[in-house]
Amino acid sequence: MSLLITTSFRLSVSLRQVAKYSVNVANTTDTLLFQSNFTKDEQEKILSTLNGSNPDQLSRFNVSQNRIKNLVSWKSKKGPFRTLHDVLEVEGLGEKVLEKICQNIISDKDVFEEKSMKTNNITNKRLKQLITPPLNGNVINNLQSAVGIHLGPIGISWAKLSCRENKLTEWSYEDFSVLPKKMFPADNFELAIKILQRLPSADIYILEGTPTMSPQGAAQPAAISSYTQHLELSSMLIALLNTSPQHNIKFKKVDSNDIQRTENKVYHLRSRVPARLFRTLVGTEKVSALAVVMQLVESHSRSDFSLPCTPITLEQQLRDKYVMDTSANKELLGQALMLVVSFIDLCIYKKSYQLSSSFAE
């Protein structure tokens, strides 16, 4: 008798669990549907949003990057979602997660805007920490183009991005492999002039903040010498960019004894922010960014684009040139591209959900 009662109880529980997913048996045969309180119109809105939104738009509804990637992958294999139950087949999407996403879509909540309002003071503080010197509103509102400049051990690279179309228009580098190991100030100055002549003109120029030297590096004379040369070349480039009429059109030399004050055109993005944003930082070490940059280069033609940034466009010639280069030079080019894309998204578009990613340790 006791066994019969226990069996009946378990059967009752199982039936209740099955009933949770069963709706309108007259409208379906053997397909179990996601049970919710959403109306037919609301469900259509949810499905339309999930099927029609790109990864960047889905992020606004508090969908993680991994889940966005899984959603895109499912649709590419099986087509658009026809029911909410289809969405439950996506890896990493359970009932509770789907319910929250649906609620955000139905209430038309823009999670990005909501979080920006709640954390406005924190965001402003972080923006000040991100860029040095701080950007003023006039620069942000009138910005049409920016050049990211990456200075590394094997060379220097630059990437020019048009802010209006988010289009990569120039992308190149200067190889340091033929330079002598020991560079004197005069040599560095000649190199800086050579680089300046190749750098494209833009409204502003972005460099990545130089990280402090580790205790291990400070104990090695060779590391100290390399670090000093890096700072020296960087400082020379900053001075030249700000005083070059080609790169700073507002600079005017009045006469040999007087130089008119002009706006600064060179800014430093906080060290390692691009690596954090694009997840190429493991602990304190940067890892290869080749896969990330390739996805960024193909961002407008890939259905599985899931990087935490605004997609870019570029001419086929620039893409082909990048693909044909060596792995080392690809890394060099990629660093400049990630730098300028990070700056535009974080400091100009002020996308605070990307901003949170960039501060993730």
From TrEMBL:
CC annotations in GO: mitochondrial nucleoid
GO biological process: transcription elongation by mitochondrial RNA polymerase
InterPro entries assigned: RuvA_2-like (IPR010994), TEFM (IPR039150)
Classification via Gene3D superfamilies: AF1531-like domain
GO-annotated molecular function: DNA polymerase processivity factor activity
This protein's name: Transcription elongation factor, mitochondrial
Species in which this protein is naturally found: Aromia moschata
